[in-house]
Automatic annotation (TrEMBL):
<dbReference type="Pfam" id="PF00579">
    <property type="entry name" value="tRNA-synt_1b"/>
</dbReference>
<keyword id="KW-0067">ATP-binding</keyword>
<keyword id="KW-0030">Aminoacyl-tRNA synthetase</keyword>
<comment type="similarity">
    <text>Belongs to the class-I aminoacyl-tRNA synthetase family.</text>
</comment>
<protein>
    <recommendedName>
        <fullName>Tyrosine--tRNA ligase</fullName>
        <ecNumber>6.1.1.1</ecNumber>
    </recommendedName>
</protein>
<dbReference type="InterPro" id="IPR001412">
    <property type="entry name" value="aa-tRNA-synth_I_CS"/>
</dbReference>
<dbReference type="InterPro" id="IPR024088">
    <property type="entry name" value="Tyr-tRNA-ligase_bac-type"/>
</dbReference>
<keyword id="KW-0436">Ligase</keyword>
<keyword id="KW-0648">Protein biosynthesis</keyword>
<dbReference type="InterPro" id="IPR002305">
    <property type="entry name" value="aa-tRNA-synth_Ic"/>
</dbReference>
<dbReference type="InterPro" id="IPR002307">
    <property type="entry name" value="Tyr-tRNA-ligase"/>
</dbReference>
<dbReference type="InterPro" id="IPR014729">
    <property type="entry name" value="Rossmann-like_a/b/a_fold"/>
</dbReference>
<keyword id="KW-0547">Nucleotide-binding</keyword>
Amino acid sequence: MTTAAVSKPQLVDDLLGRGLIAQCSNPEFLRDFLSSRQSLYCGFDPTAGSLHIGHLVPLLMLKRFQDAGHQVIALIGGATGFIGDPSFKATERSLNDTKSIQAWTEQLGCQITELLQPVLSEPLKLVNNADWLATLDVISFFRDVGKHFSVNAMMHKESVRQRLERPDQGISFTEFSYSLLQSYDFAMLNQRFGCTLQ
């Protein structure tokens, strides 16, 4: 598909009508932005060896965007799976062992490919964030990435705020840092694939 491919004008209206856009500061800008081919991704952390019903909507979103002429990327969190996303979790996630995470990463990748590839008009781009995060040293990460994040702003994130309001649980530095890793993923996907949307 060429860069001249354009999104169906009704894509944003369709997503809004289905309740698939929770927040949008400027729907008109989004419509204009999607009038040219964009690259977007959805992330899947390997917390188990199988997809579940909660993955259905994100997978359908990838298909909707590709049907509208955009490039879609499924990102498997082969590195972030070691940390765990604190969003929507009332308690700290259990840390899983390396062998399990590596097996689950491979299993999720196979399942996503088997589900989506037959219904996509062009090949699915499947990537693993361990490709760039596994070799990143902690000093470089804090100097080059961490310094661009305000702890004050991070404290106001819903996932962090909810956990801080639970004095019996709180949030560990490990889970608190998850959003930095997600941000780094987005930067890498932008550099490597021109990704502009999540």
